[in-house]
Amino acid sequence: MFNNFGSYKIGVSFRGGAAKGLGGIGLVKYFQENNVKPYIVGGSSIGAIIAALFSLGFGWRKMTGLLTHIHLRNFLSLSSILHKGTFLSKQKFRKKILEYTGSAYIEDLPIKTIIFATDPIVGERVSITKGRLVDAIMASSAYPVLMSPVKIHGQSLVDGDFFPSYSATTFRKIGAKTVFGVGSNFTAHLEDLDSNVIEQMRNTYNILMRNYEHNLDKDDPVDIQVNYDADDVHRFNFEMGEILVDRVYNQMNHNRKVKTFVKNCQKEFTAKEQNQL
Fold it and tell me: What does the pLDDT average to over 122-131?
């Protein structure tokens, strides 16, 4: 694999969005088929899981197979509803994540990795770069009402997607030279709201975030942005994720900026290899 040379230390920021965020695997597919190895990866919520699996060396096919077979009903807990006011069991979710990550620590991963979460007390995004990977992913995925906050280093943390920015500056501070951002567009419409309280909350959140994300990313832009539509995939219908994987993969294959960048990477890598002979 190439990268990690000269100006091509690639950072990849994966946005969340539950099933809508599975399009990020399309970028993984494109990178793996073109032998692109990122210098650093990161993400929030489902994007944190994709980043972690990418760093752990999972192939895009295995990643797709695992994440398109998530069923939230398997994590429902009457005890959590009665005693914590949340729908999902942290214990059940943790057990599933451990099947993917094992006992890995973030600082020991083959690729530098950032897991984003949110501190709801101070209203700030938190970058987790050390500690048990499973704990960081749990915190990054702890959407209020669905799952209770997760404590890390004394902080009670929730879903990292409350800040929809790709946080490009964070990647650059750790050494990335070129930062990719991949995520679905926030495109909720008032007429889509129904009696499902969770969907109402999430759609209302999306409506608020549409303007917020533009302001954040305007001040902290990525170098190459891959945004895609996911209106036809329900947030909790993970089985439809393959549609988004193909959508993003095809988008990258037809993106002139992406193709030129990868071609330049390959040229530089080939030149360095020849110089070492």
Answer: 94
